[in-house]
């Protein structure tokens, strides 16, 4: 039986837009619940400006709070060299560095042009020896400001970064949820063909338009075996009614289990954790499986 | 540009489980709204026992109320010969006959064994000359009572019915929403290969576990070009919290438009109809696109 890996990004992408601060202990309890249900990799938080994203201010405590779970691979999101250094100092050994394909989104996200971000990352590379690296290619398909993104632009950015760290895992992110399964499969196929030296690919999808699982399946058909997902489908913005978040971990796991693909996750054990996460004050949960299985 | 056809089944599968009776005029207004947004085919209602499904009691009035829309192909669901005759008498010219693959579901649905349903249909065939026919193969993938359904059982039923009316459109129905895209593609491919005389295939999906669009895409990859969908994702059961319905018409249209596939639907015109349908008292709407586009 073949298998895939789900990276639980709820503690970062899911919690990040939630207004009321989630106590660190409650975050840790959810992460530990995920680990107990079989999740082996988590994006546990982000080292970012605490003023910009107050919900992530406890990243160091989260990392320390997971130190006794050596089997859990905890990656931390970092947007620039300053925060990389903070993360390494706090003991992070797996970083998720993010650069956007679109100028508008990169500027909004990290206040740099794409070229500046790439140059800055190039200077940083010597400091990253021995650190496991995920590269999040944001707006790989579509940009909230500029609309559709050309495949060529995404290939160009991936190529420049792959030349610097070909051993990194490259994750194509459907930031807006407006990609479709044909687009997702096409771009992943093109990337894998263009950069055979890159051995690790991942897909990060949002379910804003209901295409989350269709896109995950599209990426799977193109050979991707690592998928980001957030417990309870968290990730929506509390200030935008109807906004919805990442594909739900429990839905992604359900789909692959139905397809006969191993995820290592015990859905029965994950469901109460998803119900707990769905009840976080200020969160906007998504996904179907939690309720569908809950009422059986 | 290639194209697909969406059959709007909200007025039947979507309205059917809604408790409070929807006034006939309101049903007709929603169907007309769909037609004005470009939908060319609708399952407008069902001729069934009024005691069993009171919401469908006005099927004759619905049919009469659409008589001035000759460009709208209105199919009516019928479960047995008695109701077929009622539908034909009321002027129906496109029937959707339903038989389940699983014994338990067929017995629950039409109180007959599968063999009895097939024999009864065989006797009925001479009366159906000149009537356009859709055959709904219910529980083609999974049964709410018996669980997973063998591909061989579905192929067997389709084969027996195709021998009687090979010109019919055969629709594989994921009654429980527990199919996955691999299963959907595999079974459609197997059917098309086994019964080359059948020229018309369709897929009917539910989004109960969030796989609705992934499954629609799976069927599309297997060559299917006709898809059932319900406006606002209606179809859940008001007595089962969390139950969810058919794939939402607006989500299916959105996905195909993103894929560059023509549906003939003007999403901007369809959205207010979807919002109206989502607000029906007693309904349990689903889908993402309605809210995602509504807040832009």
TrEMBL record, chains A, B:
Signal peptide start and end residues: none
Keywords: Lyase, Metal-binding
Keyword Metal-binding: yes
Molecular function in Gene Ontology: lyase activity
Record Pfam families: HMGL-like
Pyruvate carboxyltransferase domain segment(s): 4-271
PROSITE patterns, alphabetized: PYR_CT (PS50991)
NCBIfam families (UniProt xref): PRK05692.1
Homology family: Belongs to the HMG-CoA lyase family.
PANTHER family: HYDROXYMETHYLGLUTARYL-COA LYASE
Name recorded for this polypeptide: Hydroxymethylglutaryl-CoA lyase
Annotated source species: Teichococcus globiformis
